[in-house]
Each structure stands twice: as C-alpha cells, then as structure tokens.
Amino acid sequence: MSVQNRKLFLRPIGFSQVGFSLVELLVGLIIGLLATLVIMQVFSVFESQKRSTSGNADAQTNGSIALHSIQRDVQMAGYGLPMPSADEDNASLNCNPLPAFDQDNDPATPDLDVDIFPLMIEDGGSADGVSDIVTVRFSRTAMGAVPVKIINAANANAAIGLAAENNIGCSDNDIVLISQGPLCRMTRIADANGDPDTLQNISLIGSTPVGAPIAIGAKIACMGDWQDYRYEVLNNQLMLNGDLVVSEVVNMQAQYGLSATANSGVVTSWVNATGTWAAPTITERNRIKAIRIAVVARNGLLEKEVVTTSCTTVQGTVNNGPCAWDDTDFSAAPVIDLSAEANWQNYRYKAFETIIPLRNMLWSKDVL
C-alpha cells in the first residue's frame, strides 16, 4: 500500500452538524412573542372600535324606532272625537269639566279611567333626570265620531235602549260621548243593533247614570275603540302601556307648542308641562297645536374613559347629557339630565328630536 493511500485510509472521518444554537432559539422565541403581542393589541383595538361602531348603530336604530312609534301615535291624537257642530252650545269638545269613563266601574282605580283629552304630558322633573310621560288618546274606528241627536231618552237603561236619529257608525262596546252644552258624559254601548226597522234604539251599559246630559236634543257620538296610549321610559326602556317598545332609551322630554288663540294654527311658544300646564284647562288645551319631543338613546358599551360631557343650549339650558335641539330662535329646550345613571359620562348617546303638529281638525276650531 502506498504511503499516500495509507494517509487517506488513516485520516479520521468528520461529521458536519447543522442547526440553531440556544441563543438563536431564544431570540426567535422573543421575536415570536413580540409579534403575538402586537397582533393581539391590534385585534383588541379593532374589536373595541367594532363594538363602539355597532353600539352607535344600535343606538341610532333604537332612537329612530322610538321616535317613529311616538310620532305615529301622536299624529293620531284626537281622531274619532266628534267635531264641533254649528251650534256652539252643543259643541261636544266644550265639555267642562272634562268627562271621564270608569272602565272597570271602580272609583278606587282612577288610573284605568279614560277621558277625551287627546294629548297629555306629565312632566318628570329635571333635577333627578326622570323622563316625561306622553299619553295619546284616539279612536281606531274608520268613520270617526258622528254626533246625532237623542230623540227619546226615557229608556236609556231599559232593554230597548234610548232612541237616536240613527246609530250609524256605532258598534257594541263602543265608548260614546253624550253632550248637552258643556255637560258631558262618557259611557259604553251595550247593544248598538237597535230597532232593525228604524236603526234608532241604542242600549247603554247598566252603570250609565240617568239624567242630564242624557236628554232629548242632546248629542250622542260613538267614538269606537277609544285608545289610551301611554309612553314612558322605565329602566332604560321605552314602554307603551307597560309593554317594551325598544331598549336602551334613557330619556324622553316633551313640550307643548302653543298658539296665541284657539283659532290660530301658528305656534308662538313652547312650554313644559309644569305649573299651569300640568293640568291645562279647556281654554288652555285648545291652544295646544303641536308637541316637540326629544328621545335619547344610549350605546350600551361602557367606555373606560369619559366620552360624554355636559352641554348648554343657546337659551342657557344646562344638560347633563347631549343637547336635544338648537333653541336659538325658540323657547328654551327642556332639561336632559342623565346624571342619575352611574358612570353616565362613560356612555355614548344619540339624541333624536322632532316637532309633531296635531293635525286633526278639532285643534284648529275656536269653539272646542
């Protein structure tokens, strides 16, 4: 064997090893952790923005639905009440005092009574942030109320009923208004079929008192299914007669729009339902030509920082919450106070407002 071959044969065989060192592994782990932290931070910020955006969209939707529901019913206020007749002494809406109907015939439950006042605002006050309550009354009958004369009142509670010129537009269980000058009574029909030949006899419920204003020559008008809708905010929910309409509505404020006289349709001032206007008289009621309402909806997401501050209107109304509307050229806007809610400044709000004219004919007549 040659010397050269022996050297090759005796040369130790080397093994080449390839891989990461411990230092390289640690550096890679640190880079991966940093990338994960950045990704999670970006995801968290994006998710927060998404929740805020979707919450604002929900508040926009809730406020729009709430305002639409109220506006739809307020526009119907007074529909189905008998229109004033040519004889002002028999103008049925000249009733004084205001008649009421005890639906359960129990004086101990006046909250169930209904009357003919088409629109009422109950002021919730401004100091504690309680919302106003809006009650709307109207009929769902297609014909409205047609006043007709009573021609025989002798048997008002008898089986044959009283006799009127006709019973067109009357149905069983309709609420009726009977008026004779300023004397008025509300009651309910037991049987409107009457005499099939003359369509005259109408039976009233047995609890209807006899005597004035039920008399010959008085007017009876069937008001159909007379509705009494009560809108209020309870536990951050808009309620209609105790039923939920929409959630995350935190405040509602309303004001009457007044004309200078009953026969004018021009609104000259706006007032809260306080003082004299907490219980308007007949004369005062006839000046009410519109209502303006502000509804405040909330984004339900509680932010970590303050996102809502107090707002002062041009007329100087200080709101612990958003301003409802620009009152530069109008009477001062009502107070919106959300401070009774814990962490109220850490929520975002949407304010919706509108002016609703009371469009039914009865509001523009001087003889109401």
Spans of at least 5 consecutive residues whose pLDDT stays below 50 are: 85-90
- Write the element-wise H/E pattern from the N-terminal end onward: HHEEEEEEEEEEEEEEEHEEEE
Q: What does the average pLDDT come to?
A: 82
Classify the helix fraction into a percent range: 10-25%
Structural class: alpha+beta
How many structural domains? 2
- Shape category: elongated
Within the largest sheet, what's the order of strands? Answer: 5-6-9-8-7-10
Rounded to an integer, what's the Rg over CA atoms? 35 Å
Tell me the span between the first and last alpha carbons. 137 Å
Quickly count the helices. 3
Largest sheet: 6 strands, antiparallel, barrel
- Strand element count: 19
Strand content: 25-35%
